[in-house]
Amino acid sequence: MSWVRDGDGLVGWGCAARLDTSGTERFVEADAWWQDWAEQVEVHDEVGLPGTGPVAFTSMAFAEEPGRSVLVVPEVLVGQRDGVRWVTTVGEPAAARPPEPVAHPGMVRYSDGQLSATGYRQAVADAVRRMREVGDLDKIVLAHDLLACTSDPLDGRFLLNNLAARYPSCWTFSVDGLVGATPELLLERTGQLVRSRVLAGTIWPREGRGADELAAELLASGKDRSEHDYAASSLATCLSPFCTELTVPEEPSVLRLRNVMHLASDVSGVLSGSQATLLRMTDAVHPTAAVGGTPTPQAVKLIHELEGMDRDRYAGPVGWVDARGNGEFGVALRCAQIQSAPEDREGRVRLFAGCGIVADSDPDLEVAEAEAKLLPMREALEGIA
Predict the structure, then answer these.
(1) Which of 169, 240, 366, 385 has the fewest C-beta atoms lying within 10 Å of its C-beta?
(2) Of the residues 75, 184, 188, 227, which is catalytic?
(3) CA torsion angle 198 203 289 318 (round to 10)
(4) What class of enzyme is it (predicted)?
């Protein structure tokens, strides 16, 4: 298990406790289970920083059904924050074995997933047609998947190391086989402070175009600015009932990554009461317009109809929460679900990518954007430096 950004974060292994849940009440059940479990543990914490003491790594399903959600409390946790390092153990962990060396997974071959690129283009075209003709949606976020098989066993640490090295400003995560490097922070709680990084609106490298030129084009794009405004206002509307103060930037900035650029807004607030647990706030804000659409209920319903695939935990909240209520949840983007076991002779992994679709979206450009968003996981899988 992992949650690391710029060298700081948490890495855990072993399983001291675990909850698997699903359905409409998955966040409520997860919150109740975690609070009950944490209250029964005798804690000795000499450090007292967010992430010390008991921690549950968490990965929630995107939708109510199908999909599964999981909380895992590791037996051993190693953390680092602002130059302070610590180790947390739960109970009497099993005797440590020397770690196996991380090996290259060998040759990689790709095949269509549940929704091919061609099928994805058709889904985008259908969504655009509906928005233009019916007019009941402002935005919908559609995704597709890609299957990859490796000639040798696949070690999740191989992916994590490559992702962290190439995308240090992203949150590199691993929870129950879901591995990725997300640029989008859904919610972070530290004491009574909460913040979020909203991303929506994307441009990717193109031949003959410099980075500054691309950034200026993104900021000037009416389509991308409109998409971003939907996402930021969605987050603020859902988060405001928990806050006495909430600050939303008037203008987005540009987040520059190796494979794409995004419009970004950092939202921050002061919480109003003890009922604002991180999991309950996450339940309130997920899915934002950045991963669902606007209006969200109609968009999420149409996502299932148009995609026809199980997203599972892709685009769901992923991260960690500690016993004092601190924690960080990102949106599970730029990620893949490892489907093979470590002892298998070959590796098997399912990659995901998606885009925000509005009425003037071009299906061909959306396919190209999704391909650009698959690049981080493909390069990590292939070991490209």
Answers:
(1) 385
(2) 184
(3) -60
(4) isomerase
Burial of 9 from C-beta contacts in 10 A (0-12 / 13-18 / 19+): buried
- pLDDT at 150 exceeding the cut of 90: yes
CA 126, CA 6: separation in Å to the nearest integer? 40
Distance in angstroms (rounded) separating the CA atoms of residues 257 and 171: 13
Residue 333, φ and ψ in degrees, nearest 5: -115, 170
The separation between CA 309 and the C-alpha centre of its own chain, rounded to angstroms, equals 18
Decide: 315 and 287 in contact? Cβ < 8 Å.
yes
Q: The tokens 């948490």 sit on which residue?
A: 10
| From 139, 227, 328, 369, the catalytic residue | 139
> Is 0.85 surpassed by the pTM of this model?
yes
* Domains in the chain with CATH codes: 2-382 (3.60.120.10)
- Residue 184 a catalytic site member: yes
The rounded distance, in Å, linking the Cα atoms of 110 and 336 is 13
pLDDT tens, position by position, 106-147: 999 999 999 999 999 999 999 999 999 998 898 899 999 999
* Burial class, 79, CB count within 10 angstroms (exposed 0-12 / middle 13-18 / buried 19+): buried
**Residue 301 annotated in active site:** no
